[in-house]
Amino acid sequence: MASSSKKVHVTEVVLRDAHQSLLATRMRTEDMLPICDKLDKAGYWSLEAWGGATFDACLRFLKEDPWERLRKLKQALPKTPIQMLLRGQNLLGYRHYSDDVVEAFVKKSAECGVDVFRIFDAMNDMRNIEVSVKAVLKAGKHAQGAICYTTSPVHTTGHFVDMARQMEKMGCQSIAMKDMAGLITPARTVELFAALSKAVKVPLAFHSHTTVGMANISMYLAVENGARHVDTAISSLSWGTSHSPTESMVVAFQNTPYDTGLKLELLQEIGFYFRAVRKKYHQFESEYAEIDTRVIVNQVPGGMISNLSNQLKEQGALNRMNEVLAEIPRVREDLGFPPLVTPTSQIVGTQAVLNVLTGKRYKSITNEVKLYLQGRYGKAPGKINETVRNMAIGDEEVITCRPADKLKPEMHRLRDEIGELARSEEDVLTYAMFPEIGRKFLEERAAGTLKPEELKPPKSAEAASLPAYAPTDFNVTMHGETYHIRVTGAGHKTEEQRPFFVSVDGVPEQILIETLTETVPTEAGMVDTRRASRGSKRPKASKEGHVTSSMPGTIVDILVKAGAKVKAGDPVLVIEAMKMENEVPAPVTGMVKAVNVAKGDSVNPDEALVEIE
């Protein structure tokens, strides 16, 4: 039952969502532990410190064991509950896991230090959070259900109230309105929280981002209309795509019935600490960290815009961004208005890009869209366009049950697959979440070769004030010999290469710089460098039977061999782009003359990946 007190309870998100929003989830445990004593004394209701993209980032970039981070934080925060974000049946990955994996993961997370589990489903399909909620309650921890806020004809106040009632009946001990894109307006906040506070008895929490700039006033109005829990980020990691500043909201609630009781002086000390820490991660600052009102017009979160921008820029199609932004709401409507949050934001966004770049809507359909339209992610909030569904899956069965009901228990198989690399149950669960990067992490740990990505030193004040020009006059030492290099000019830059004119010890020379790597976006703004196909000997697509990719990506699977006969429309390749897999069909009927790719290759548009005659 909710307390009769109107006191506002604050959840601080600086250890998770704040740096995920602003610094690509790159903050290291070593920069969290020194301030934990003050965070623990501040009087927060909880500290969000785990879940979301932190698990992925620890393994992929920081080379830290996420379970060890959790244990260290629990030891350093003896008084304050640790909170995590859990994607229901998806846990921390991007697919549905079997119930035994969900139960094992929740149990282990509780044992290692999680006290509050905020549980949501990208589709707002309540069936997809049931097992997680039951597992949390069984572990004796706090189960907070989270409703993904979005706007559409079907996302009415009554729709959200119905979900809240289902969560309360399920056993959730509090309910959060999770506004991941900062969409909620002050007027809608009043309407929604007034209705929710009448409909359910459990405490209500308000979570929003300051992407559009409305979160502060909406938060206050949510509290005036029944919310008793709010999420804030310490000021030095607030605003933009992050959250409302903790200190500002504490001051706003002072001397009112909603006073948080938090001490401003201690919060200011914490803020100064993270101001210094933020400078350490300057290389991960996002250009989309400021207020961005486009989300209101296009319903596209800022982080999703940056992801789309990178994809379009890579293929020289950045000028088509407005077309993609206009297409996203249309795709979202075709798919029954899912909220745009991981993984549905990637599903909708990638399909919109394909629709624009191929010149024909749904000419190429990603595997994830096909799975979505089969019901494999859950029930869509609204009505699905049956014409699109028929184009994607034809007469294939559409499941109406809970998607995980189709999954067999997995823990035994996972233990066998990872074998002796797993020293504990935590290691098995790490592998379960992310098989490729999890295995790589465990292999590097066993070999003693774990090495986090390099942090670039902050620029000095003097260097920061100078123009950011590349040097044109320098010395190069090779094999004990030093050469004086002066760059005298540069030729025309193409996608693959650029000539530079230099003098070496006064002798004119020409060098050709050829691009061999590319940077591609991943979760929460992360970047990963892969071997590129640029500069490869792969022929350009010039004939009707040449199979090409609509966008840059990575070869996941090759479905044909040279000499095989194929029909037009048969899938021949599977390509991953923007974390989505896409089957590439044969453009003509004929025989496969050549396969010019291998698994793991990075490919670009206009290359002949497979040749059919």
Automatic annotation (TrEMBL):
GO BP terms: gluconeogenesis; sodium ion transport
One of the Pfam families matching this protein, by short name: PYC_OADA
Source organism superkingdom: Bacteria
Protein name: Oxaloacetate decarboxylase subunit alpha
Annotated stretches, region: Disordered: 530-549
Residue ranges of domain Pyruvate carboxyltransferase in the record: 8-268
UniProt domain Lipoyl-binding: residue ranges: 536-613
Gene Ontology cellular component annotations, sorted alphabetically: cytoplasm
Single GO MF descriptor: pyruvate carboxylase activity
Keywords for the protein's UniProt record, in alphabetical order: Biotin
PROSITE patterns tied to this protein: BIOTIN, BIOTINYL_LIPOYL, PYR_CT
Classification via InterPro entries: Aldolase_TIM, Biotin_BS, Biotin_lipoyl, Carboxylase_cons_dom, OadA, PCB-like, PYR_CT, Single_hybrid_motif
